[in-house]
Amino acid sequence: MLTTPGGTLLVMAVLVPFVGVLLGLTLGGRHVWRVAAVTVLAGLAIVASLASMLLQSGDTVVYLLGGWAPPLGIALRADSLSVVMMLAVAVVICGIGLYARSDFGSVAGAAEARAPFTFWLLLLAVWGSLNLVFVSGDLFTLYVALELVTFSGVPLVCLDGRGETLRAALRYLLFALAGSLLYLLGAVLLYGAYGTLDIALLAERIRPEPIAWSVAALMTVGLLAKTALFPLHLWLPPAHAGAPAAASAVLSALVIKGSWFLVVRLWFDVMPGVVTLSAAQLLAGLGAAAIVVGSVVALRQERLKLLVAYSTIAQIGYLFLMFPLAFDAGGSALVHGPALTGGLLQAVSHATAKAAMFMAAGLVYAALGHDRIADLAGVARAMPITILAFALAGLALMGVVPSGAYLAKKLMLDAAASSGQWWWEGVLQGGAVFTAAYVVLVLTHVMRRPRGPAQPLKRVSRLSEFAALFLGLCSLLLAFAALGPLPGDLVKNPLAPGELGTTLLVFLGGTLLALGLSPQPLLAATRGGPLRRTMTRAGIAFEHSDGFVRRWPSASIALLTLAALFGWLLLARPLP
Amino acid sequence: MSDALNIGLAGLILGLALWSIVAREAFAAVEGFMAFGLLLTLAWVQLHGIDVALTEAAIGGGLTGALLIGAATRLRSTEAAARVEGPGAPTRWLAAGVSVAVTAALAVGVLALPVPAPTLAPDVAAHIAVTGVGNPITAVLLAFRAMDTLLEAIVLLFALIGVWSLAPDRFWGGRPGLRQQADPNGILAYVARVLPPIGVIAGIYIFWVGADHPGGKFQGATLMAAMWLLVMMAGLADAPPISRTWLRILLVAGPLVFIAIGVVGVVTADAFLAYPPGIAKPLILVIEFALMPTLTLILGLMLVGAPQRGPLP
Amino acid sequence: MSAATLFGLCAAALIGIGLYGLIVNPHPLRKILAFNVVGSGVFMLFGAIARRGAAAGMGGDPVPQALLITGIVVAFSATALAVALLLRLFDETRSVSLASDAPDKTQPGVDDV
Predict the structure, then answer these.
(1) Tens digit of pLDDT for each residue in C60-106?
(2) Disulfide-capable partner of A569 in A278, A439, B68, C77 (CB 3.0 to 4.6 Å)?
(3) Residue of chain B with shortest Cα separation from C93
(4) How many Cα atoms sit within 13 Å of B222 on the Cβ side?
(5) CA Rg, chain C, in Å?
(6) What is the spatial distance between Cα A511 and Cα A501, in angstroms, rounded to a whole number?
(7) Subunits with at least 3 CB pairs below 8 A relative to chain C?
(8) Could you tell me the pLDDT band of residue B132, with boundaries at 50, 70 and 90?
(9) Which of C7, C11, C20 sits opposite B99 (nearest CB)?
């Protein structure tokens, strides 16, 4: 194993944002924004050249730090997975940077202010740390990278210093730390058993035996806690809903993808033969539960930002559906294939769409001074670009052609059909219906004619609106970008009868769910039907169970119980 | 070393850990934790990890203990309210059950570790000559896995930025912590005058010998940070306002020098963080020397906390 | 029993003790303390593994020992950030409860999250 040409780009992708933080800290004050702008441009160029290089050669890019080969040294590696994630993160960072220009831009002559100063430094910090997560080939360096992501993400939660956001940040930090300890524990045991922490070497040495099973269980649940997969999501809703919109976008679109990516690395690249189909079914089962609970509770929310935050929980669930679909024909090992590509596309479309949604929600809040969903009438007319951004992002998440989520759904549906796992087909389609439900809910409210006189609106920055629109568009058109490496017949004409029919069904189902579950009646006529009463009761029951699961003792006991469950499912493998 | 001594040590460690979890008062729990840290140091010596023992004593026990003691004192009034929130007996039993299950699984794992144990010690021994340093741990930290050490300095810096970001807006740019009022003729002031020169020399010594013997920049920097904190606690010096340019420069100097030497390595030794043959040891010493003030300041400032006083007019 | 095995088992027990505290202690400071106990357990386990790897005239495998130093410093950073966050929460609300519906005593009428 040797350094490949262009490997220096990997070092630069990590270090350029970090050097940006160091310089921003030194220069301080009004220069921070400029440093951030230059760094974002440089980082974008680095990632773009890395991507074009990988697209041409198709080989993994490797860099041996200090010239020392593993197991003694540390290698950086970028395969197509890493590069796709790096590209997505770079684009989203760019969009967030443009969006935050008006909120956190510098004012000539003003002294250094806390929130803008820390926001820009933390944005770069998150970026460099995530790039490190994507390229590091060493499990201990990855532990440090995970902590870097957490330490730069947590202060973003409480950037405005209100008590409730401080509480949310502390919950997040403590639960994330518990998760990282379990991850580190797994890494320690791996070293004890196999004498290396290098991913490629471990993949060769690891055997399906008790110590590998316990490691897989511990590391997986530790990472799930940091990703906030149901039922380990206690920290996410208040943290993501309370932060300033630009920070919420960073947290929801990017930060959770770091630990998710590590689960993918661990399962697909470190121990593809150690994990079992039944463990993957459990992982995807948690994902399905996340979709249902997250979506229903999202529909019950009265505030837009909380709705968007809860929908993140549902979409995190979606990201785990690919695991049982990615096994080889015999069901004995995970393989890189269409299902993984689908999962990756899902992550990228969620990153862009979720950032756009939080930005749109933030703009609505800034304009109205509140984000109560029931009082959003007339907003679509007053802020068409913002609402268009929200709608495009929503369509993209629903999986309408030609969004990335569409392609993702298609790849995973094919994988489910070919492996005979019909139940995941149902979950995949159902997830789209749930997404449609809350998009329809919000759009109905914003397009409604205001009853009284129009509400006074504060002007919001055009640049911010267009930044949100840009990311929404990216998400909706993602399928075209993916077509370079993927076969062209995957994308159908959106107006073909079959596609149109599916889209309509999804919308219809979504509208019914929204009618039944939303606390604010969508139509006067639906105020008191028996069906609605039943659905409301079910919705409240879901809210209560979510509240119970999100209590600290329940969540932390669930964490360890899941570890035991995963260990058991890995142990109980079918005989060859 | 006799088994009986080790078993006694392990028992004491477990007892103190249990105490720090179940003690009623947070202050008492933290005291237990500090004693626990001290005994851990002995365990590290028994495990032949002298460098780790020094780090554990300095950072794990010392600085963490000081941080927690300070917090426990300030939060005493909140403990009664928290006790009411405690979960009921079923939850406790369930928690105990899953914790015991984890311990049992880990114990099985420990006993199932392979024999002979995999080790990289021969690899380190084979390549240590190239680095020019005599302490194998320093060779790992600053040559074979230098990236981790660079990242660790960056972790500390990010955590400090995070701590600072918790300041109320009006105090941004001001001095961290509260001004300490101490009797200028009291015993604390006396100690704070006498001890720091000795402590600083000891810190530099620990740093200097670290290249070839147990010790190094972290342990040295912790000692220096402790001396600085002592001087601040005695009211002889005040924490600098966080907007000071010299402070900001010193905070980034260590990592920047580290990165710069790493980049030079790309040109002269064909890899980032590689050292040209023959001058590896001097370069390692330069990096450690540049990291010392950065680490001392970061460790000290993390203990002092977020800015709590207005910036100077 | 060798010191490595003994302290390895001790580490497993420390992790269990710490996890119990992390789950049941409602006070955030006690959770931070418990986090440090679990952390010490993980580190001690790594130390035991390092000791098992003694070879080439070294008393322990220097790679895990070096990683331990990094790990201890990272854990300290986490503790410092958590304590700072906790103290600020206390200053702001005079309460340190992590329950999501805890009253915010200084800001009446804030939406519960």
Answers:
(1) 899 999 999 999 999 999 999 999 999 999 998 888 888 765 444 34
(2) A278
(3) B78
(4) 22
(5) 19
(6) 15
(7) A, B
(8) confident
(9) C20
Closest CB to B71 among C57, C62, C87: C87
Q: What is the pLDDT of residue C38?
A: 96
Q: For chain B, give the percent of residues with pLDDT over 90.
A: 45
Q: Check residue B182 and give its pLDDT.
A: 67
Residue B60 to chain C, least CA–CA distance (Å): 6
Residue C108, phi-psi category: left (phi > 0), alpha (psi -120 to 50), beta (remainder): beta
* Other chains touching A, judged by 3 or more CB pairs under 8 Å: B, C
pLDDT value at residue C112: 36
Q: Alpha carbon of B125 to those of A274, A295, B121, B128, B133: distances in Å?
A: 33, 57, 6, 5, 11
Low-confidence ranges of chain A (pLDDT < 70): 1, 106-110, 453-455, 482-495, 521-528, 573-576
Exposed e or buried b per residue across A313-323, where buried means at least 16 C-beta atoms within 10 angstroms of its C-beta: bbbbbbbbbbb
Delineate the domains of chain C, giving CATH numbers in brackets. Answer: 3-93 (1.10.287.3510)
Q: Is the CB of residue A204 less than 8 Å away from at least one CB of chain B?
A: no
pLDDT in the model for residue C108: 37
pTM for the full predicted model? 0.94
B47-79 pLDDT per residue, tens: 998 888 888 888 877 889 989 998 999 998 888
- The pLDDT tens digits for A292-302 are 999 999 988 88
User: Which residues of chain A does B148 touch, with a Cβ-Cβ cutoff of 8 Å?
Assistant: 74, 140-141, 144
Phi and psi angles of residue B23, each rounded to the nearest 5 degrees, phi first: -55, 145
Smallest CA–CA distance, residue B185 to chain C, in Å, is: 31
Query: What pLDDT score was predicted for residue C96?
Result: 86
Q: Which two tokens stand for residue A467?
A: 């930044």
CA distances from residue A275 to A569, B113, B143, C6 in whole angstroms, order as listed: 9, 20, 35, 31
Torsion from C-alpha of A265, A268, A269, A273, nearest 10 degrees = 140
B308 to chain C, minimum CA–CA distance in Å?
Answer: 10
Q: Which of A144, A169, A237 sits opposite C70 (nearest CB)?
A: A144
Closest CA relative to residue A287, chosen from A253, A255, A263, A252: A263
What pLDDT shows up at residue A483?
A: 64
pLDDT at B214 over 50: yes
**CB contact (8 A) between residue B117 and residue C77:** no
- The single residue listed with the structure tokens 């968007």 is A308
3-state secondary structure of A208: coil
Asked if B121 and C90 come within 8 Å (Cβ–Cβ), the reply is no
Q: Rounded to an integer, what distance in angstroms lies between the CA atom of residue A346 and that of residue A411? A: 10
Task: Determine what percent of chain C is predicted with pLDDT higher than 70.
Answer: 88
Contacting chains of B (3 CB pairs or more, <8 Å) are A, C
Q: Which residue of C has its CA nearest to B82?
A: C27
Strand, coil or helix: A138: strand
As a whole number of angstroms, the distance between CA B76 and CA B78 comes to 6
Provide the 3-class DSSP secondary structure of residue B296: helix
Residue A347's pLDDT is 93
Mutation target to probe the C interface, by most C beta carbons within 10 A, among A160, A185, A197, A303 is A185
